[in-house]
Amino acid sequence: MGHAIRGSSQGAGLLALALVTASCSGNTAVQGEKTPQASQNPAAAAAVVTVAPLDRANGVATDTPVLVAAQGGTLKQVAVKAVKGAKGSLPGVLSADGTQWRSSGLAAPGASYEVSVTAVNPEGAVTTKTSSFSTVKGNETFTIESFMPGRDSTGLTVGVGMPVMITFDRDVTDRVSIERNLLVRTSRPVLGAWHWFDNRNVHFRPKDFWPSGTKVRVEARLAGVRGGDGLYGAANKVVNFKIGRSQITRGTIQSHNLTVKRNGKVVREMPMSAGQGGDWKYHTTSGVHLAMSRENVTVMTSPGIGPGSAGYYQLTVYDTVRISNSGEYIHSAPWSVGSQGNSNVSHGCVNVSPSNAKWFLDNTLIGDPIIITGSPRVLEPTNGWGHWQESWKEWLKWSSLKHFTTDDV
Asked: Which residues contact 320 (CB under 8 A, 6 or more apart)?
C-alpha cells in the first residue's frame, strides 16, 4: 500500500507535551477534573487527563490537532464541539490501548471549541475534564474556482496523460499547508507530485503516464486550511474519475503520418499534413500534447491578423481535437488531402482526411497524449496542457512537498 501526504507533524510534539504534563502530575488531578476520593491502593488512583491545546488558549492554528491523553486509565468519551463561530464537532481517532485520542479534522477559523473528556481508572473510578480553546481569526476565505477532470469539462473517464488541475478563486501563499491537504488516492500505487504554476493554479501529474484502468479519488480537504495571512479555505471538495484505455498518438513532421496505438497495439495510421513553417506561428509545435477538447465544429481565424490584412482567414472546420492553447488542432481538412502523407501545407494545425478526423474525434479521450516531433518550434509547458514537456526533475522544482506515492482508494 502506498502513502498519501498526511497532515502536520505538530501533533507528535503536542502529544509529547501532554504526556509529560501527565507524568509530572502524579496522582493529582489537573485543574477542571472531578476526582473521586483517592484510595490507599495505588491501583485506585484517579486517571489523569491532559488536553492540548491548553485550556482557554487563543489564536490556535486551524490545523493544530486536539490531543487528549489519559494516564492511569483509559478514555471512554472525547468530544470536541464548536460552541461559537462554527457548527459541528471535530472527528477523532482513539489509540488501540484507549489512552490517547487525536482529532482528524480541521477546526474552523474564528471559532471557539469545547473539549469534554471522560476517563476511567482500572477500578472503574470516573474522571471528567472540560477545556476550551479558540482558533485564529480569518478575515477572508478562498475556494476552488475550477477543478479538472470534471463531469462537464472532460468526462469522468480520461486519457493516461490527464493532469489534475485546481484553480483557486484568489491568490494563496501558504502552499505547504494546501498541499498537505490535497490527497490523491488511487486503485494502484502511483508516484506523483503537485506543481504550482502560480498562486492560483496547482496541478498534479504522475511521474509517468497513468496506468490504464486506474481509479482516482482526489480529496481537497481545504475547509479551515490556511491559504495565507488571514485567509482560510471555505469548503472541501471530492472528485472521482477513472483512467481509460491507454491510447497514444505519435507523428513526425517529416514522415507526414500519425500512428495511433491503443494498449500498445497499432489501431490506426493516418496520413497528415502539418504546419508549413516560414513564419514561426505556422510551425506545428513539437512535444507531448494532450487532447484538450473535442469539437464537432470550430471556427478558426488567422492568429494576429485582422480582416482586410494580407493572410487573414476565417474558416469553419469539422471534427476537431484541440492540442494546445496556441490554436493547434487535429482536424478534418478535405482541401489538403492531396498533401497529406507527403508535404506540410497547414497554418500550424495537423490536417487529416474527413474520415480519419471523424474516427479520431470518436475515439479520443480528453487527456490522451498526442506526441509530435520534428519541428523547430517546441511546445511550451504552459501552452495548453504541456505538463509532460517538463522532466520529472523540473516538475518537482515547483512542488512544495515534492513527490509521494498515492494511497489506496
From this structure: 294, 295, 296, 297, 298, 329, 330, 331, 332, 357, 361
- Distance (Å) of CA 320 to CA 213, 259, 350: 26, 17, 10
14's grid cell: 503536542
What would the DSSP string read from start to end of 335-383?
A: GGTTTTTT---BSSSEEE-HHHHHHHHHT--TT-EEEEES-SSBPPTTT
Give which of 92, 85, 116, 119 is closest to 106, Cα–Cα.
Answer: 92
Cα-only R_g, the chain: 29
Give the catalytic positions in this structure.
Answer: 331, 349
Q: How far apart are CA 348 and CA 282, in angstroms?
A: 5
Least confident of 28-37, 62-71, 75-84, 308-317: 28-37
What share of the chain has pLDDT > 70, as a percent?
A: 89
What local confidence, expressed as pLDDT, does residue 41 receive?
A: 55
**How far is 392 from 386, CA to CA, in rounded Å?**
13
Between CA 346 and CA 323 the distance in angstroms is: 15
* Distance (Å, whole) CA 328 – CA 204: 24
Question: CB of 16 within 8 A of CB of 112?
Answer: no
Which strands sit side by side in the sheet containing 314-322, from one edge to the other?
Answer: 293-301, 314-322, 329-332, 350-352
What per-residue confidence (pLDDT) applies to 44?
67
Bridge partners for 82 per DSSP:
113
* DSSP 8-state assignment for residue 10: H
Contacts of residue 285, defined as CB under 8 A and 6 or more positions apart, other chains included, come to 324, 326, 328, 348, 372, 375, 377, 378, 379, 380, 383
State how far the Cα of 81 lies from the Cα of 387, in Å rounded to an integer. Answer: 43
pTM reported for the whole predicted model: 0.81
Per the prediction, the chain carries an average pLDDT of 89
Separation of alpha carbons 176 and 13, rounded Å: 19
Rounded to whole angstroms, how far apart are CA atoms 46 and 39? Answer: 9
Q: What is the DSSP letter of 281?
A: G
